[in-house]
Amino acid sequence: MFGTAHKHIHGSDDARRLARRHLPRLVFDYIDGAAGRETGAGRTRDALDRMELCPRILRDVSARSLAVPLFGKEAGAPFGIAPMGMCNLSGPGADLMLARLAARENVPLGVSTVASTPMEEMIETAQGNAWFQLYFSGDGSGTFKLVERARDAGYETIVLTVDVPEVGRRPRELRHGFTMPFRIGPKQFIDFALHPRWSLTTLLKGRPDMANFLRDGYTFDRTESRARATWDTLDRLRDMWPGKLVVKGVLDIEDAQRLARSGVDAIQVSSHGARQLESSPCPFSQLAPMRAALGESMPIFYDTGLRSGEDVVKCYASGANFTFLGRILQFAIAAGGEEGLNRLWATLKSETSITLAQIGQCSLAELQKEKGADPAPS
């Protein structure tokens, strides 16, 4: 179906450009869009671009490794797969493509509450390399059912997303009438008709849906308020969850310090891909101050705005212990299917390795040691 399209992916910009050509406008704008006028996304990009990495010379960097410690194990790459809702919109079977990638690369796959493949199938296909991402919504009754289900499915890590008390306004989605569950009206039908390759393959495979809610007798409303979540909610989750607990969507240093005292296992600095609050602080700019405030023992993860291996190295140099990639992986799938995804992943690993060589480092752990950070928090 994709022919040789994957061969034209030489970086994330290529993947995005090809995805924009192949996807219906409604779907592309859902994946690509951000809150408000999207200035928050621009500020994150600017901050990453402003950071410089100084080349070092005459160091033996012939033996380089991208493996990094992660929760007492070793991840095969310094980046994992961020939880993303309804990934199968980017291409039929996208969720399982990402799961197979996680299994092969030994990296965590974030399985979204609103994934388009059931959580049980995802962790099985990922060969255990899966973390379940949790939204609190409504009165929480459905939320904690999902926690029990994740435990029964064998998940060892829960990622609680806390930066969506209300779903942010994303004008590109609103203009297209995007909804979950996915609905097709006259406007959407015309959009799909202009993109027959995507439409026909999606029709053959079936409409993507929020697969974790097709059983158990309750539903999930994407627009439902999540504003009732409190610190007591976190305490309840911590008490009932025996595994690792990551809290995602943290930008305030006082919040991060309180989370550390509350017994979470890691904090994920993120602005939800700039999809929630347009004027929120740039998450990349918060990394170094967050590390300084929390000390070296607290694991800090990062997502938002990463587009290259150089971006990944910049995050580690700023104090991150692990990073997650998001929408660029969906673009690669839309551009070239599973071959496109694998090609972009290989490109990102190559970019990271080359960047390390240029700055005179053999590993990200070595880079962090030179920067004065502990490369392997428990």
TrEMBL record:
Glyoxylate binds at residues 30, 135, 170, 272, 275. The keyword Transmembrane helix does not apply. InterPro entries: Aldolase_TIM, Alpha-hydoxy_acid_DH_FMN, FMN-dep_DH, FMN_HAD. Gene3D superfamilies: Aldolase class I. Keywords: Flavoprotein, FMN, Oxidoreductase. The active site is at 272 (proton acceptor). CDD domains: alpha_hydroxyacid_oxid_FMN. Signal peptide: none annotated. One of its GO terms (biological process) is aerobic respiration. Residues 4-377 form the FMN hydroxy acid dehydrogenase domain. GO terms for cellular component: plasma membrane. FMN binds at residues 83-85, 112, 133, 161, 248, 270, 303-307, 326-327. Coiled coil: none annotated. GO terms for molecular function: FMN binding; L-lactate dehydrogenase (NAD+) activity. It comes from the Bacteria. Pfam families: FMN_dh. Its cofactor is FMN. Belongs to the FMN-dependent alpha-hydroxy acid dehydrogenase family. This is FMN-dependent alpha-hydroxy acid dehydrogenase family protein. It comes from Roseovarius nubinhibens (strain ATCC BAA-591 / DSM 15170 / ISM).
